[in-house]
Amino acid sequence: METIQCDVAVIGAGTAGLSAYRAARNAGKHVVLIEDGPHGTTCARVGCMPSKLLIAAAEAAHAVREAPGFGVHPGELNIDGKAVMQRVRSERDRFVGFVLENVAAMPAEDKVHGRARFTAPDRLQIGANLEVAAKAVVIATGSSPEIPSGWAAAGPRVISSDAVFEWTDLPRSVAVIGAGVIGLELGQALHRLGVRVVLIARGDSVAQLKDPQVRASAAQALGEEMDIRFRTEVAAIQRAGDGLELRTRGANCGTEERVEQFDYVLVTTGRTPNVSGLGLDHSGLALDEKGVPKFDRHTMQCGESCIFIAGDASAEIPLLPEAADQGRIAGANAASYPGVKRGLRRTPLAITFSEPQIATVGQGYQELLNGREHFAIGAVSFDDQGRSRVMRQNKGLLRVYGEYGSGRFLGAEMVGPRAEHIGHLLAWAHQARMTIDQMLDMPFYHPVVEEGLRTALRDLSKELQKPPPPPKPVPNDCTPGC
Ligand SMILES: Cc1cc2nc3c(=O)[nH]c(=O)nc-3n(C[C@H](O)[C@H](O)[C@H](O)COP(=O)(O)OP(=O)(O)OC[C@H]3O[C@@H](n4cnc5c(N)ncnc54)[C@H](O)[C@@H]3O)c2cc1C
Ligand SMILES: NC(=O)c1ccc[n+]([C@@H]2O[C@H](COP(=O)([O-])OP(=O)(O)OC[C@H]3O[C@@H](n4cnc5c(N)ncnc54)[C@H](O)[C@@H]3O)[C@@H](O)[C@H]2O)c1
């Protein structure tokens, strides 16, 4: 058995792991980066980048279809599925190539290939003949798509998003199960690229939205374009010739089943943190109900131990910018362990690249309700917003939340045009702890979609002048059965 001694061991060379590696190395420590799979990161290989490449092709097709609405007639739309997928894969490979170049430039003695598992809080086993003894460890093992075993039994055409980016051509039909962020982004993109798509949503939820009014607006706008079936359950998936037979049941249809054939069923029902095979029972850590070590979100330290966690493995906010921030904090604190410092956690910002786009900023509607805070709401519909109408993108709703008394901006949920940019403006205002009046003092050009934001802020400012509603009744714990 060979033993490598180091200051910090990082498990996983994704965005979070690479960020942790750099932070610990910048602190002058000997860091070992352990990776089990191919290098390149989830983001570049099967995540952010290839999905946005597919969406970019879909937007091009959509623009051609929409052109006649402006009096522009580009002729018959011809989508070359092979060329679409070729560009997705070759540009994806380019992004992966940059990561590979960075990894190749690291000193060879810093890199270990293999699957790590804890044998003690400060000791990792990699394969049969190697162990790493470290003063501190960062868990940055990412997450994986999950396909329920009953569905997977129908064969290899029941796929996760990973498989989409290996296609060499576009299929004729895909059923997408789950209207979360991945289902919506990939489902709409495939639909726009001429694939027959049905999106099955178990409930009413749309991407990360929690505000019922914004959610309803998103459901309407997206449902006008594509076949989204809300409150629909999957009853069964079976092989049927070269494809699949999908049986679904709508909530209001009793036991009646709808039976349809598809080339693929794409399962986008969520991702699971990669922590189950880590031997956490030897780590001495307290785990939450998902089996993820409990940690402090400001230091990324697990309890008082020498173990830190970062990225999707933490199951906190599975987004790339969060993985990078968490990795940086975890790496720096692992390097200085037992001394740890609170790192910068930014205002929450999440964007879904559907059209209309979806953005959530700061405290969401449900979080504010749960917190029993006194908050006022301002809103704007984009249906008649000037610039949005000019672009024929006049759909959606923005709701902004503000605090009575302080007038502080608390958060927002939005579906509408340019939400990725409005989301950033709002996130910056939130992190700067601005009030609604301070935000209204900022410049707004004309004619821009941001004028819609100003309307929502003015509406919120007026609401904040009114007396706050009476406090919500506190549930009476003395009620029998409580
Ligand atoms: C389709 C899709 C689209 C997305 N789009 C966006 C987007 O537009 N914007 C955004 O912000 N986020 C997006 N995300 C989310 C984003 O990709 C992730 O949040 C981010 O990549 C997570 O990084 P990570 O470092 O935690 O994990 P990863 O990059 O997955 O790295 C984890 C690494 O750990 C390795 N590993 C696991 N277990 C072990 C072990 N025991 N031993 C050794 N190595 C191990 C794995 O092989 C892997 O390389 C998307 C995700 C998907 C799937
Ligand atoms: N643009 C982005 O930033 C981006 C893009 C893609 C992914 N991501 C990240 O990846 C994470 C994972 O994405 P995801 O879409 O897999 O998960 P998700 O949690 O966003 O959505 C899963 C959806 O599947 C539904 N669902 C669960 N079980 C179901 C069932 N049996 N039948 C029908 N529906 C079911 C859930 O209700 C939910 O709406 C996201 O939370 C996000 O953080 C981000």
CATH class of the largest domain: Alpha Beta
Largest sheet: 7 strands, mixed
Rg to the nearest angstrom?
A: 24 Å
Broad shape: globular
Tell me about this structure.
The strands form five sheets. Strands 1, 2, 3, 4, 5, 6 and 17 form a seven-stranded mixed β-sheet that branches. Strands 8-15-9-10-11 form a five-stranded parallel β-sheet. The protein has a five-stranded antiparallel β-sheet with strand order 18-19-22-21-20, with helices on both faces. The chain folds into three domains: 2-145 and 272-336, FAD/NAD(P)-binding domain, CATH 3.50.50; 149-269, FAD/NAD(P)-binding domain; 349-464, Enolase-like, domain 1 (2-Layer Sandwich), CATH 3.30.390. The chain has helices at residues 15-26, 42-46, 48-66, 81-104, 149-152, 161-164, 181-192, 212-225, 320-336, 365-370, 386-390, 419-431, 436-440, 450-465; strands at 2-11, 31-35, 111-113, 116-120, 123-126, 130-139, 143-145, 158-159, 173-177, 196-200, 227-229, 232-240, 243-250, 258-262, 264-267, 271-273, 307-309, 349-352, 357-362, 375-381, 397-403, 409-416. The termini are far apart. Strand 10 (196-200), helix 8 (212-225) and strand 11 form a beta-alpha-beta unit. The relative contact order is 0.12. It is 32% helix and 25% strand. The model has no long low-confidence stretch (mean pLDDT 96). The chain is α/β, with parallel strands linked by helices. The radius of gyration is 24 Å and the shape is globular. Helix 1 packs parallel to helix 9 and helix 3 packs across helix 7 (181-192). The longest helix has 24 residues, at 81-104. The protein is built from 14 helices and 22 strands. Bound molecules: flavin-adenine dinucleotide and nicotinamide-adenine-dinucleotide (NAD). The site of nicotinamide-adenine-dinucleotide has 24 residues, from helix 7 and strand 18. Flavin-adenine dinucleotide (FAD) binds next to helix 1, strand 2, helix 2, helix 3 and helix 9. Residues 462-482 are annotated as: Disordered. It holds the Pfam family Pyr_redox_dim. Keywords: FAD, Flavoprotein, NAD, Nucleotide-binding, Oxidoreductase. Belongs to the class-I pyridine nucleotide-disulfide oxidoreductase family. NAD(+) binds at residues 178-185, 270.
